Amino acid sequence: MTKKILVLPGDGIGPEIVAQARKVLDKVNLQFDLGLVFEDGLMGGCSIDAFGVPLSDETLARAASSDAILLGAVGGPKWDKLDRAIRPEKGLLKMRSSLQLFANLRPAILYPQLADASSLKPEIVAGLDILIVRELTGGIYFGEPRGIRTLDNGEREGFNTYKYSESEIERIGRNAFEMAMKRNKRLCSVDKANVLEATVLWREVMDRLAPEYPEVSLSHMYVDNAAMQLVKAPKQFDVMVTGNMFGDILSDAAAMLTGSIGMLPSASLDKNRRGMYEPCHGSAPDIAGLDVANPLATILSASMMLRYSLNHAAVADAIELAVSKVLDQGLRTADIMSPGMRQVGTAEMGDAVVAA
Ligand code: NAI
Ligand code: MG
Predict the structure, then answer these.
(1) Ligand 1 pocket mutation pick from 82, 261, 268, 348 by most atoms within 8 angstroms of CB
(2) In whole angstroms, how far apart are CA 39 and each of 78, 100, 282, 297, 347?
(3) Rounded to whole angstroms, how far apart are CA atoms 170 and 182?
(4) Is the pLDDT at 273 greater than 90, yes or no?
């Protein structure tokens, strides 16, 4: 049985880093006879240049009929002056909402080889391995009504709506409990139930789901405390689940505990675990085309794709082991370079992972 993967390299460093992930996928496809079939497409600025829109209906339809999507990154200064409605980022939002990719998985893993890259003391972060599950298609980023209105007194007021339905909370909650089952069976749900009614309901639904996952220990934390705890004692967490806005902020903070934006993968999944996989970083226009970008976040995103959408956990393990081996060999791209290590370019790093 074949599996169709839609590959969207995007803009900036996207094509360079995705090419490395493709090398790794081609290698495992052959070695483990996975039956993966790849198709290429355009999303972001490159699609605006070709079709006038950041995501065409044709590409969206191809995405919808794929088993998984591998994305580089979109955007760059060339398209910054365009009207908001057709900016490259709109392609990403359209993909997420059209395919209902509501579960955003953001691991923050500190590789022991890179322990000195973190801004925190080694004893606080060594061995860090947490997973933030962020709701991605609801909450205040999508809630209506929203806008800027003029009040009777002539003053203007900006407003957004924070809301979550029970079914929205339930589906992200189930996803998080399932992730916790696959890991260390600890789940922390983050809310602001002392202030926001929408999150009172969030907490209630999480508590209601808990008995269905008796092996998982569920805890609750207010988001302000969670932010403090993440920088104070991050290893107390295993899986965290939270809404769209809190997750956006907490996952970026958690990512930085690892000190290296070039190492962080992500997944955005629908209810059938079909998903879009991409590095957490952007298109890095400042280093595009220079063969210096770190391809490991994209390679690790491909590994997440094998684990979560394609049911090849053992192959995903093999790729993660290969990444670890390459770091053991002392190979480093510029962003993670430290004294005594050997600096390599984007393509050489990709080749080294393939060889490992
Ligand atoms: P960025 O993540 O592209 O870059 C931030 C800094 O990190 C830059 O100095 C860059 O050189 C460095 N960096 C990023 N990825 C790297 C890698 N793999 N290896 C080595 N260094 C790396 O964020 P920035 O500069 O805010 O945004 C640039 C463009 O990317 C913008 O147009 C933005 O809208 C877009 N963007 C796209 C995202 C996506 O496609 N999901 C996410 C974030 C930003
Ligand atoms: Mg963000």
Answers:
(1) 261
(2) 26, 21, 22, 21, 21
(3) 18
(4) no
Global confidence as pTM: 0.92
Tell me whether the CATH fold assigned to 1-105+284-356 matches the one assigned to 129-257. yes
Ligand 1 centre distance from Cα of residue 178 (Å): 31
Is the shortest distance between the CB of 89 and ligand 1 below 6 Å? yes
Confidence grade of residue 280 (pLDDT, cut at 50, 70, 90)? very high
Any idea where the domains of the chain sit in the sequence? 1-105+284-356, 129-257
> In this predicted structure, what is the pLDDT of residue 234?
96
CATH architecture of 1-105+284-356: 3-Layer(aba) Sandwich (3.40)
> At the topology level of CATH, where does 129-257 sit?
Isopropylmalate Dehydrogenase (3.40.718)
What positions carry a catalytic annotation? 141, 192, 224, 248, 252
| pLDDT at residue number 249 | 94
Backbone angles phi, psi at 347, to 5 degrees: -70, -40
> Quick one: average pLDDT of 204-224?
98
Its ipTM equals: 0.97
